[in-house]
């Protein structure tokens, strides 16, 4: 029997309790860990080292779920769907600590047992104790050697297991990387790590050097606006609170910048961001538009996300339109269009801990249709000589190169230009598109292609 929160043992560790409750929200109501946890930490006044521990345990457990479940199934000798959900959350949390942290086995097991005993009593606590003790008898490598497909028979399956990715996503990465096993291993390993926080210094408001000084960070490798934050809560920085800076992956910054630096003769200053919510790229593009004397139309289909854009572009030359970008009613003739298309997000899995276990190949099939329709409309809205930058935070060829090839095939008047000229980074491959990678560039796996009419 589950006890109510009021009757729970007050002695349970608050950091682990927050991690458990977040994992439960993710499992039961499809919540997003990175939205639930920060709010919970604030409400429960969990700060400092406890907050850091709760964050590490929650995101790490969510990211590694498939690997942890395979180990739990082997140790418990029963399938996951025969384990009570609340017990499973605590087993995952305990297994993560045992396999992937330096927390001692005794602490990992006893705090997990406390968590479950306070809610569900002695019986389930005994089960958790037995399973976690069994897991603690081997380290991660030994479990992987025992449970993963063999390297000789199924290299991709082995790497997918080892770096906690669903098999189909490892196949997509392998495909996008052109079949190199070394590259695949590096990509999956980088995607399995806690990602660094990147800040964007919005041009005309603060420079990257000033932001680096104010935040104790380092200026980015590629984006002239990027700062790598070494730690701490970005929301504590004055520059972020004042809207001069924001949290934004360096790859996203490079995409936003690319649309502003493409060669467009006689730019009349009509710029469009077709899928703008929540406004990260719109804020960067609009800050540059402000300097260049241009104006940005930002289209977004969701009311809530349009509100988020309005907040982040206040005081910048932007008109926000709530509309389906395939039929927005805006007049053609844009000089520059950013189409940051809705996508599977397979390129930013490291920043969305549970996402890899939720996505399915069917999501991709649906999105591809929308992406083609949006790109077709982008070309209709573009003036001759203007440039569309098409981007996704996904390296999935179906969402990237295949969308471009398909739409180009239907528009002989459109040429693909070399996007490498628009991105100040190295290791950009053969072009004409750009595919960034966490293991090569330290960015999310953003894709961009540039088309001119
Ligand atoms: C990848 S996100 C854009 C991220 C954004 N550019 C940023 O940097 O913050 C895609 C956005 O497109 C929106 N969207 C989806 N379908 C749309 C449509 N048909 N028309 C306009 N926006 C759409 C989604 O709601 C989502 O906010």
From TrEMBL:
It holds the Pfam family Methyltr_RsmB-F. Belongs to the class I-like SAM-binding methyltransferase superfamily. RsmB/NOP family. Keywords: Methyltransferase, RNA-binding, S-adenosyl-L-methionine, Transferase. The active site is at 393 (nucleophile). May act as RNA methyltransferase. It comes from the Bacteria. The keyword Transcription does not apply. One of its GO terms (molecular function) is RNA methyltransferase activity. Residues 173-453 form the SAM-dependent MTase RsmB/NOP-type domain. Its EC number is 2.1.1.-. GO terms for biological process: regulation of DNA-templated transcription; RNA methylation. This is Methyltransferase. SUPFAM superfamilies: NusB-like, S-adenosyl-L-methionine-dependent methyltransferases. S-adenosyl-L-methionine binds at residues 275-281, 300, 324, 340. It is an enzyme of class 2 (transferase).
């Amino acid at each position: 029997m589950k006890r109510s929160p009021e009757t729970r043992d007050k002695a349970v560790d608050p950091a682990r309790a927050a991690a458990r409750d977040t994992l439960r929200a993710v499992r039961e109501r499809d919540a997003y860990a990175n939205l639930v946890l920060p709010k919970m930490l604030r409400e429960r006044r969990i700060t400092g080292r406890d907050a850091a521990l709760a964050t590490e345990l929650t995101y790490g457990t969510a990211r590694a779920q498939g690997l942890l479940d395979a180990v739990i199934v082997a140790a418990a000798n029963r399938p996951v769907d025969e384990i009570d959900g609340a017990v499973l959350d605590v087993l995952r949390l305990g297994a993560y600590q045992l396999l992937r942290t330096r927390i001692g086995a005794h602490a990992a097991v006893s705090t997990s047992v406390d968590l479950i005993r306070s809610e569900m009593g002695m019986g389930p606590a005994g089960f958790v104790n037995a399973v976690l003790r069994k897991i603690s008898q081997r380290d991660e490598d030994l479990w992987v050697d025992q449970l993963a497909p063999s390297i000789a028979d199924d290299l991709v399956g082995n790497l997918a297991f080892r770096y906690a990715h669903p098999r189909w996503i490892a196949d997509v990465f392998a495909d996008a990387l052109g079949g190199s096993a070394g590259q695949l291993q590096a990509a999956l390993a980088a995607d399995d790590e806690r990602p660094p926080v990147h800040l964007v210094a919005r041009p005309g408001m603060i420079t990257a050097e000033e932001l680096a000084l104010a935040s104790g960070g380092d200026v980015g490798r590629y984006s002239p606006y990027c700062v790598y934050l070494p730690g701490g809560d970005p929301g504590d920085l004055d520059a972020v609170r004042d809207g001069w800076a924001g949290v934004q992956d360096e790859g996203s910054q490079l995409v936003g910048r690319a649309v502003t630096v493409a060669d467009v003769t006689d730019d009349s200053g009509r710029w469009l961001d077709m899928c703008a919510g929540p406004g990260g790229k719109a804020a960067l593009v609009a800050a540059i538009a402000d300097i260049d004397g241009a104006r940005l139309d930002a289209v977004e289909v969701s009311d809530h996300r349009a509100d988020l854009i309005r907040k982040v572009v206040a005081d910048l030359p932007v008109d926000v339109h709530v509309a389906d970008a395939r039929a927005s009613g805006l007049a053609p003739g844009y000089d520059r269009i950013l189409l940051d298309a809705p996508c599977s997000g397979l390129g930013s899995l490291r920043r969305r801990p549970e996402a890899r276990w939720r996505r399915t190949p069917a999501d991709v099939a649906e999105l591809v249709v929308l992406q083609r329709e949006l790109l077709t409309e982008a070309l209709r809205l573009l003036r001759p000589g203007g440039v569309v930058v098409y981007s996704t935070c996904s390296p999935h060829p179906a969402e990237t190169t295949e969308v471009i090839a398909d739409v180009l095939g239907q528009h002989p008047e459109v040429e693909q230009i070399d996007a490498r000229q628009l991105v100040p980074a190295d290791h950009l491959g053969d072009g004409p598109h750009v595919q960034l990678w966490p293991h090569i560039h330290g960015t999310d796996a953003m894709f961009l292609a540039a088309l001119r009419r």
